[in-house]
Amino acid sequence: MKKDITQNVGFAFLIMCILITLFFLCAIIYFIGIRGIKVISWEFLTQSPRAAMTRGGVAPAIEGPF
Amino acid sequence: MFSHEINEMVRLKEKIYQWIFSILAFSSLFFLVGIIIVLFKESLPLFSKIKLSSFLFGKSWYPTFDPAEFGILPLILASLWVTFGALLVCVPLGIGSALYLNELAGHKQKAILKPLIEILASIPSIVYGFFGMVVMAPFLQNLLDLPIGLCAFTASIILGIMAVPTVCSIAEDALSYVPAAFREASFALGANRWQTLIKVVIPAAGSGISTAIILGISRAIGETMTVLMVAGGAAVIPKSFFDPVRPMTAAIAAEMGEAPLGSLHYHALFSIALILFLVTFVFNIIAELISRRFRLKLGLAG
Fold first, then answer.
1. Percentage of residues of chain B with pLDDT beyond 70
2. What is the ipTM of this complex?
3. Inter-chain contact A31–B131, Cβ cutoff 8 Å?
């Protein structure tokens, strides 16, 4: 029946909407989280930058907001 | 006699709480008034030198040239383009997700999905900007073969995603207020679920959904960090969606640090802020009026 087809198309659209939203959420978490976590270590969090900001860590920047 | 003393104490306590909370409530009003006064005080000196019409409709924004030109039409257009683009992203995604949560998701699914969508609201805007700059812009540049990835189009997508949780959670609330009797009546007349959703549930929640959209707009138009990083920053009148643009918020954020205190440029930035404030203020009032009507319509006003 025609109205059932409309219903299926409509529901498929809604599912697509939520999937796209979740996709972006996962993409952001993946790119920021997974790539970021690789370089985070105790040295990174607790040391000051060295060698013109190319070595060392970000401790002063973390202390900043407090 | 003893109980009388306790009563006295309770009453005193209540009075103290009342005082504390009314002071807190009035303090926010106080800050609002303070902000408005500062905005007007700092922006009005500009208009003794520059006509309002040439400020609003001037086509060139060259604040540091000699002679400087303060026409904010490119900035206004940039804000409109980016906000409109964000709307095209956040309205289908936000409303669609809200409808899915309300209509198709079971209790368990809803309990997982709703917090997940709200995580999107808790991500700091700088992270969105970073994501847009590092991931989205190069990706779109390659995909669509653009001269530059940092443009109104990329900014619209990122802003749209940022506004999705706002739109979704308010729309979902509005949908959940629709009385079950409305659906049942529609089913009893032989409508299927989709027809009920489109013809009964959405109109019944219509004002709540429009409130959601308007609040999404004011979120998108006021967003600063993301557009500063992603929109490209060229203060020229945008010709297409793929041009770099400089929305009003980004102009203020980028130039405030460099504008000499009390100069025309400084006052011009405050004038932009004033316009931005008035725009979001109007949007919020519209949203408030609509949601009030919506409560009346469903008989929730009490």
1. 96
2. 0.73
3. yes
